[in-house]
Amino acid sequence: MRSNPSDYEMIAPGSLHAIVSLLANEPGVWVPIAGGTDVMVQYAAGKLAARKLVSIWNLPELRCIEVALGEIRIGAGCTYTDLRGSEVVGREFPLLHRAAQWTGGVANQNRGTIGGNIVNASPAADSLPALLVYDAELILVSARGERRLPYADFHIGYKKTRLANDELVQAVCLPRRFSEYFGYARKVGARNAQAISKVCIAALGRLADGVVEDVRIALGSVAPVPLRLTQTEQTIRGKAIDSHLLLLAKKAAAAEIRPIDDIRSTAKYRAAVAGNLLAEFLNRLSSEQAGSERGRVKGILAQWNRLSIDEATEAILPCCGSKAWAQGMVARRPLGDEAALLAASEDTWRNLTPSDRKEAFRNHPRIGESKPADSSSTQSPSAKSVEWSAQEQRNIADADSAVKIALANANQEYERRFNNIFIVCATGKSVSEILGILRRRLKNDAETELQEATEQQRQITEIRLRKWLQG
Ligand SMILES: Cc1cc2nc3c(=O)[nH]c(=O)nc-3n(C[C@H](O)[C@H](O)[C@H](O)COP(=O)(O)OP(=O)(O)OC[C@H]3O[C@@H](n4cnc5c(N)ncnc54)[C@H](O)[C@@H]3O)c2cc1C
Predict the structure, then answer these.
(1) Domain end (from 275, 304, 333)
(2) Which tens digit of pLDDT belongs to each residue from 419-442?
(3) Which DSSP state fits 257?
(4) Whether residue 150 sits in one domain with residue 74
């Protein structure tokens, strides 16, 4: 049934002070109306219980975005169009910016306000998951004064909030500490535009050393209130993103959400979509990291490509130890990425003379020792080479003295037999494995042994080049 306009009264006092005084004098009698995009839907359907409306539309006190050092303060009367037009929201709070873009159509974005979205308190509201992950705080105002409340504590049940009936939401405050995070937001509805979400997500993540250092995830339409998935976040934090983690995260999310069947969707569909959106977020976060890793590698190589011949030779020499190899690599510049670098290295190494290869061997310490075997070597190893050798031989350093003596004896025998130091790619090998390899190779003829040592040095160089690219 449609409403009868004569049953309603609407006034527009025009200032925040006048409005909060009115609400204080007759609490619960006057209901604020901002853009009216929710209120007027109820009115049109004959379901608007409030008969007295007070307009807060376009109040200067509510329609501004203030940028302070630690936070931005968005007036509750800002429309979606205002949010879309804000440079600071777009740059530092892209998840909110994106939600503003997909809320309703243009007419709706010109009228609908963020304050209205918050107080209307729909679990399907699009901007609210973003407010959760950005740790938003609300400033509530009344004739009694102002109070500040974390947005996460504001919604206490389906369409229930902590707003007192003499209060207005004055502003939403967002701390400016998330601009370095990777952000992901998606809305799944019947259509891309003009549709209420079946599920929507806002998520932030940051990786460090290959593991998730921090993550913040919120979903809409999966519970009576917009939901921050704190348990799921805890499951994810500190772990590397792989297929196992995706399964764990989906399981944790399924245990946290409480979706329902309604006219827009089913609980089963919502649960499946929520899990898929979570997995998509984690996969994107992971490839974002890979992308920035690739960018960093390219930057390191670009810098090396620009060095003088002598500087570039010196910079790459610790990866192999052979001067001819280093000069060969420098001659192949510019090298654009890791694959090109490794291919150039293999080719250069393959075309070296036996004496150039032996120079690389002599730059290593004996297995079980920390100083290079040949003190008369043409160049003394760089600090980098010494550091890498120590890392490569980490397992041997911890071995007991009997094994170390056995290694030293076998080393001596090897050098007597082949007139060179024993070369093995020690990374990831145990001492007993290395001792076994050394004893086996003592039975090689000289030619076979040179080939084996050459291959081991190739592997060492490859590992070192990868480390070198870490900067
Ligand atoms: C066609 C259409 C499409 C829509 N699409 C979407 C969509 O995609 N996503 C989405 O999330 N929503 C959507 N909506 C819902 C609506 O546009 C939003 O919730 C909007 O943000 C409401 O803001 P408003 O200013 O119009 O609120 P109003 O209708 O003016 O008010 C809504 C409620 O909030 C209260 N209120 C408003 N401002 C304040 C304040 N500052 N302090 C205290 N109380 C206040 C009012 O009293 C009322 O109870 C759509 C609506 C329509 C009609």
Answers:
(1) 304
(2) 888 999 888 788 888 899 999 999
(3) -
(4) yes
Q: Which of 22, 31, 37 to mutate to test the pocket of ligand 1 (most atoms within 8 A of CB)?
A: 37
**Is omega for the bond preceding 318 within 30 degrees of 0, making it cis?**
no
Same domain? 458 vs 319:
yes
At position 425, the amino acid (one-letter code) is: C
Q: Are 133 and 204 in contact (CB under 8 A)?
A: yes
What is the Cα–Cα distance from 128 to 390, expressed in whole angstroms? 52
Confirm or reject: Cβ of 45 under 6 Å from ligand 1. no
Instruction: Provide CB contacts within 8 A for 240, sequence distance 6+.
Output: 210, 211, 212
Cα gap 170→56, rounded to integer Å:
10
Tell me the CATH number at 313.
1.10.3330.10
Rounded distance from Cα 142 to ligand 1 centre (Å)? 20
Which residue has the CA at smallest separation from atom 37 of ligand 1?
116
Q: Which of 143, 176, 209 is the last residue of a domain?
A: 176
Asked if residue 54 has its Cβ within 6 Å of ligand 1, the reply is no
> What does pTM read for this prediction?
0.71
